[in-house]
Amino acid sequence: MKQLPPDKILRLDALLRGAGSVAIITHTHPDGDALGSTTALWYFLTLTLGRKARILVPDAVASNLQFIVAEDSLLDVSADPSGAAAFIGSADLVVCLDLNVLSRTAGAEASVRSSRAAKVLIDHHLSPAVEDFDLVFSETETSSASELLHYILLALPGIGTVDNLPEGTRRALMVGMTTDTNNFANSVFPTTLAMASALLAAGVDRDDILANLYNRYGENRFRAMGAVLSELMHITSDGVAYFIMDSVFLRKFEICEGDTEGFVNLPLGIDRVRISIFLKEDDGYYRTSIRSKKGWSANMLAREHFNGGGHECAAGGRLYWPEDIAGPEEAAGYIETVTARFMCNRKPEI
Length: 350
Ligand code: 5GP
Ligand code: MN
Description:
Blueprint: H1 6-18, E1 21-25, H2 32-48, E2 52-57, E3 74-76, H3 81-90, E4 93-97, H4 109-114, E5 118-123, E6 135-138, H5 145-155, H6 167-180, H7 190-201, H8 206-214, H9 219-232, E7 234-235, E8 240-245, H10 247-252, E9 275-281, E10 285-292, H11 298-305, E11 309-310, E12 314-320, H12 331-345
Parallel strand pairs: 1-2, 1-4, 2-3, 4-5, 5-6, 8-9
Antiparallel strand pairs: 7-8, 9-10, 10-12, 11-12
The structure holds guanosine-5'-monophosphate (5GP) and manganese (II) ion.
């Protein structure tokens, strides 16, 4: 991670201290890093700085992540669009975390764009839309938005160590970093381990976090995982694994938000697989998750063919019908065609 510019830190400090109320916003279908980073900032603003803050999530929180949500901190934009718009409209400061473009805030986008408040971005994705913000902390050489926020908070005047952060902030930072690294399986930097070490030393209960994150799923998740691996997964001759969950499959296994978290990583364990693609049916489009091995760009594939983006080896997007494909049944053919070209054009240097 690069050194955080002192002038930017001072500017952020002034913005945080000068704001009566702060709208903290993250991306649609919030994951552990989205909720961890926003919750960490919420505790800091509320308990350390005594500010009024709300976290605006574009849609509902998955059940396995509910445990980190602080009481009265969250406003679900999809459940209360007018309340969300009113809060954003009246906020003195807007802080966006774990997103690179405002379209990722879905139902909150229009309110954020029309807000006259100062806007801050704290993110770790490629290609941030810097023009939409007054102050940007963008760092790709970091595990998570939570890790970046951790070092930003420590750099603020008077903070210095994790002992000066609220307990809720420490715990939420650990959650966000843990989920975005897939429990230390990817995107781990020396700074990531240093952060984890400091948080552990300060008393964060990692065993409790892991039990909440990974050992409290419904049985349906594992039945669905079995069906994916035995029936749905295809692997092309170029080493592209893909599986498509249509609405019939989603109903059959009673899949809710969060139940399929991590599925897209599974095919990467196979030697000949280079890229893994997971399509999940939504309203008029497939939500797309892409993961790649080193040397193959999930980000480029998402940008070029799935209306999305993300990180080099972990990206996402959407495949719409009738814009991209005639209908949902065309998705497999689309994947086969575009990846054949993509893999041929983007062979890594040997
Ligand atoms: P996931 O597959 O876990 O949903 O997302 C993987 C990564 O890609 C995350 O960092 C996420 O922020 C990003 N991502 C997922 N969906 C989209 C999308 O529709 N657009 C963009 N720009 N990024 C996405
Ligand atoms: Mn993230």
